[in-house]
Design a protein that fits this description.
heterodimer, A: mainly alpha, Non-ribosomal Peptide Synthetase Peptidyl Carrier Protein, Chain A, 4 helices, 53% helix, 0% strand, B: alpha/beta, Rossmann fold, 31% helix
Chain lengths: 81, 362
Amino acid sequence: MSSAEKYDAAFIETFLLEPKDLAALKYQEVESWDSVGHMALIAALEEAFAIELDIDDIIEFSSYEAGKAILSKYDVKIEPV
Amino acid sequence: MTGLDPTFWLDQPPFAMDAEAKAAALTQTMNALTEWHRQHCPAYARILDVATDADGPVQTLAQVPFIPVRLFKEMDLRSVPEDQVFKTMTSSGTSGQQVSRIFLDRETSALQTKILSRIMGEVIGRKRLPMLVIDSPSVLKDRNAFSARGAGILGFSMFGQNVTYALDDKMNLDLPAIEAFLDRHAGQPVFLFGFTFMIWQHFYKPLQALGQRLAIDQGVLLHGGGWKKLQDEAVSSRDFRATLQDCAGIDRVVNYYGMVEQTGSIFLECEEGFLHAPAYADVIVRDLGDFSTLPPGETGLVEVLSMIPRSYPGHALLTEDLGRIEGLDHCACGRRGTHFTIAGRVARAEVRGCSDTYEAAA
């Protein structure tokens, strides 16, 4: 799986969404991405990419798009498939 | 200049500012917050009109207008439009009691977590640690209606990894889960979190009954939520620490004092047994009769100040807790800032606190 596929899979599996819903997705805008869902997403991403996110990055991880920039700090490049 | 912008505070280490510099900076922020809430919360503005003479900036923290914490039970106090509220926190209370309603927007919620992460650095260091929650996962089951207990667990879970629960859905000790967690993280620091009474009742007591001793020798245990129930059993903070060291091998046991009305800016207990105000918050003790400020050493009502609340007017609150300032800046532990102890609650106050409102099955 490419990084982009792993990244999408974490959202799709954690929040039970369709791929088409991802691009505009923001924290707290779907029911499943609440504060509990947030920590589940972070755990899924940490496992998928074998990284450990800093606390400030977890707080700033506020959308599908914002997350890509945050992961780039951990040398994870999410490029379009 | 410190106004509403939190950048200055986010750059401060939690326990390094000396009292004078901190008081000056925090007073400025308090003035800005009082003004913000006066302009954005009409009910708060009316309270200020009636309750205070000053309608401009004040010179000292003691002059900052404060409101009783119980007001959040009696009215909806909000400083942002209703459609910006994305989370409403409620206080813990036993059945039949009124609960506080605290309205959070994204900004205040994010600031709570950022400030808490600065303070948590003192407890667990810079990195998140494997975390054992001494509670039951069932408190998080209803995602739409967290208790304050659930919200507390969730808030602190941000500092954990591989979050594991030490109790099952029926509040029984889940020894296999605990042992698997300890095996997985053997030789590594781990973070334990729970509410004081739950730890005593559902962790220590079952371990004692089983004659089992755990060896969590790299554990840091953070606990809070009130002492009333343990005071009834005559357990002091010192006893609690010694007991957890004995039954679970935990060397570092840290109590905190905090409340849902000022989530984020918690007060940590140091090695000397004193609670410390972090840079972002402070404590004032007031006379029970006329609310004048009391000098260190005298017991009175505790007022808490925090630079966090923006979406509700909770930056200066008179609690129903009794306490005593023990000193400023010169604690033997080396941390600066006001340090204090909590002596209990005023008579006839409602019982609250995540630990104290818990009704254990007999």
